[in-house]
Design goal:
The chain is an all-alpha fold. It has one domain. Helix content is 72%, strand content 0%. It is globular and about 40 Å long. The termini are close together.
């Protein structure tokens, strides 16, 4: 999502931090998917794909000549998966919004030959508003997480004490990453 930068620039350092944050979140979601029950495995796997996809998009040097097309294909597949998850309830709509936002950003990378190009201002603006609200709400929920968990028990993995807060923190990190990438468009 970023242009080329010198290795010591602040822009490059923040881009690599975003790559690390998204990759770690994706890895945690992948582990969660492996341990999760059947009911929540799909959602955790979808979040893992989003985390790794966002990490690939945030690489400062771009994703190579075929990277954007591969990202578009993977993100479209994730969108189909998110549509499938919607049959379980409207609470899965965020996954659909996230995967469609990733398709949108990957398409802008395709037009920009591996680097983000300005997309449609209205679409970018709506996604920025959505993710700003998501991050603010997610942050507020994380701060007040001292009470009962709203994350289903099977979603965090068996026997994981405090895992509900970690799931919320991962979702907040990925939402913040998405917001940062949209701001860079």
């Amino acid at each position: 999502m970023h242009g080329s930068a010198t290795p010591l620039s602040a822009s490059s350092a923040s881009a690599w931090l975003l790559v690390l944050l998204c990759a770690v979140s994706g890895a945690y979601c992948l582990l969660r998917a492996r341990r999760a029950g059947r009911r929540t495995r799909g959602m955790a796997a979808g979040e893992a794909v989003m985390g790794f996809g966002m990490a690939a998009m945030a690489v400062p040097s771009g994703t190579g000549p075929w990277g954007p097309q591969i990202l578009v294909a993977v993100c479209c597949g994730a969108s189909v998966h998110a549509l499938w998850l919607l049959r379980g309830g409207v609470h899965h709509a965020h996954h659909l919004v996230g995967t469609l936002a990733m398709v949108y950003m990957a398409l802008s990378m395709t037009a920009g030959h591996g680097h983000a190009r300005a997309g449609l201002p209205v679409v970018t603006g709506v996604l920025l508003l959505y993710y700003a609200g998501y991050v603010l709400l997610g942050g507020a929920r994380l701060v007040t997480a001292g009470g009962p968990l709203s994350v289903p028990a099977g979603e965090a993995g068996p026997g994981a004490a405090g895992a509900g807060e970690l799931v919320r923190a991962c979702r907040l990190a990925m939402g913040t990453g998405m917001l940062a990438m949209l701001l860079s468009m």
